[in-house]
Amino acid sequence: MRNEKVIFCGNSSDFLSHELIGQSNEANGGTAFRIPSLINANGTLIAAIDRQTSGADWGYIELAVRRSEDAGETWSDIEVIATPPARETKITADCYASAFFIDPCMAVAPNGDIIMLVDFYPECKGLHNKKLLDKKKAPYASYNNEMRPVIYDRDGNFYIVRKDGVVLNHKFHETIYRVTDWKGSLYKGDAYAGNIYLNGKTGSNEANAVTTFGAPLKAPKRNYVFMIRSTDNGKTWSDPIDITSDFLTEDDGTFIGTAPGVGLTTQSGKIIMPLYVDKKESVSIFSVDNGKTWHRMKRQPYSANVDEWQMIQSPDGTILGLGRQKKYGKTPLCISSTDGKYWEKSGKTDIYAPKCQKSVISIGNYVFCSHASERKRENGVLTVGRFKKSKGITDGIRWYSETEINKGFFAYSCLAQIDDEHIGVLYEAQPSSYICFKKYKISDLI
User: Fold this and answer.
1) What share of the chain is helix, strand, coil (3-state, %, to 5)?
2) Which of 203, 202, 198 is CA-nearest to residue 217?
3) Most-buried pick from 191, 246, 271, 299 (CB within 10 A)?
4) Nearest CA among 35, 25, 4, 80 for reference residue 432
5) For residues 438 and 423, what is the distance between their CA atoms, to the nearest angstrom?
6) Are 172 and 203 in contact (CB under 8 A)?
7) 94: helix, coil or strand?
8) How far apart are CA 367 and CA 331, in angstroms?
9) In Å, how far from its chain's centre is CA 436?
10) Contact 260, 103 (CB under 8 A)
11) Is the dihedral of CA 388, 394, 395, 397 positive or negative?
12) What is the DSSP-derived secondary structure letter of residue 385?
């Protein structure tokens, strides 16, 4: 179709047809792909993705990116920017003997850095088998006026990981153990003792990954939110940093995770990132220091079932959040008139879509939303609207036109403004492993 480019393409017939596999190569390939994120970082387009081996929301999942410095016409070769610890990899959804990343969400900080938040799970199946999660184990504890990670032995005794990696027992005495990196490598004295995010012995390795074995001390099995930063428009990336303790509450249970897509940098210079909890409620966190520290918004009251959501800001400063519905119908909406400090439930807006993530961006008074338009995840469209006001204050969106993205399967997507004349959309064009990019002239849409 017009302007369509394949940005990420799987190479396994377990997850993609033989015809489409033929388009996979060294520049765009891997076993399987899901969950696109797209952002314009100072004129460079960054496309981020879950690079999978199972075709599912668990297993061995890395984070990968491609870059375009010519408005989406050509793209750099695929590059893995974060690799989880694993003790076994298999090209099947039956394998979950690995930690994994999932659901990248990017924003550009006021200083120009790219901030990426992403979910990280120890070895488990995430939300798809909650029985494997550690509901009763606290992931953090206060030590020296800061929250530090907690790990446990097989008897349930807890230990605190100090900032320098030294492991303290429950009496805050130093032990012979230390954690040496973000991946959870545990040492007992000078001897490697395994990985705190894994269980059991090293197994088979179909992905040619670096594998290891589980440690005697383990982190709780739950979701963590990690941050990765690039200071050079995506050419290089920092190691992941666990930021979960900045905003986690006891009520969150074992899951508080990113809403995939992009965050919002407001007119005031605040970075707001969309998250949600397992209760299917939206949560937002913000940073006023370019992502160095994070704070949680007031809970007042988030719109029910917004869960995976995206934000836009109108010219008058009002922030609107569009979410994901429980079933085919109108899209949940929440609004903040306080720069994201407080959020109010605001009913629904007239975007009809199935239960699926959608993307939304605004340019001036115009709003663009990419989403599936049928009762199933099919037939992607770009719906265009304008902010509407009541008594001089933005209170919603008036939608008025629709442009086809594709026919057939359409699931998660991400929009970005490319320049003054164009926007682009990165989207899932098959149930797994086939991620496409299309470019549109804004004047043709509005």
Assistant:
1) 5, 50, 50
2) 198
3) 271
4) 35
5) 9
6) no
7) coil
8) 14
9) 18
10) yes
11) positive
12) E
Per-residue pLDDT, 303: 60
Render each residue's pLDDT in the chain as its tens digit; 446 residues.
457 999 999 999 989 999 999 999 999 999 999 999 999 999 999 999 999 998 899 999 999 999 999 999 999 999 999 999 999 999 888 888 999 999 999 999 999 999 999 999 999 999 999 999 999 999 999 999 999 999 999 999 999 999 999 999 999 999 999 999 999 999 999 999 999 999 999 999 999 999 999 999 999 999 999 999 999 999 999 999 999 999 999 889 999 999 999 999 999 999 999 999 987 788 899 999 999 999 998 765 566 667 899 999 999 999 999 999 999 999 999 999 999 888 887 789 999 999 999 999 999 999 999 999 999 999 999 999 999 999 889 999 999 999 999 999 999 999 999 999 999 999 999 998 999 999 999 999 99
**Cβ(93)–Cβ(56) under 8 Å?**
yes
> Which pLDDT belongs to residue 302?
60
> CA triplet 165, 168, 170: central angle to 5 degrees?
150
Kindly report the backbone phi and psi dihedral angles of residue 433, in degrees, each rounded to the nearest multiple of 5, phi listed first.
85, 5
Residue 410: HSE in the Cβ half-sphere, 13 Å Cα cutoff: 26
Q: Which DSSP helix (H) or strand (E) runs through 18?
A: helix 18-21
CA distance 211 to 85: 7
The token pair that represents 53 in the structure block: 């081996």
Tokens at residue 4, please? 């369509």
Q: Is this prediction's pTM over 0.85?
A: yes
Q: From the centroid of its chain, how far is CA 351?
A: 23
**Nearest to residue 405, comparing CAs of 385, 367, 362, 435?**
435
DSSP letters, 128-165, are: G-GGGS-TTS-SEEEETTEEEEEEE-TTS-EEEE-TTS
Q: Provide the residue count of the chain.
A: 446
Give the residue carrying structure tokens 């770009």.
Answer: 382
- Residues with Cβ within 8 Å of residue 293, at least 6 apart in sequence: 246, 287
Conformation bin of residue 216: beta by default, left when phi > 0, alpha when psi is -120 to 50: alpha
Per-residue tokens: 410: 């359409």
Q: Give CB contacts under 8 A, 24+ apart, made by 101-104.
A: 101/50, 101/61, 101/62, 101/63, 101/226, 102/35, 102/50, 102/57, 102/61, 102/126, 103/35, 103/50, 103/257, 103/258, 103/259, 103/260, 104/35, 104/37, 104/48, 104/49, 104/50, 104/63, 104/258, 104/260
Please give the single-letter amino acid code of residue 368: F
| Secondary structure class of 349 (helix, strand, coil) | strand
Residue whose token pair is 């699926």: 356
Q: Which amino acid is at 170?
A: H
What's CA 126's distance to the chain center, in Å?
14
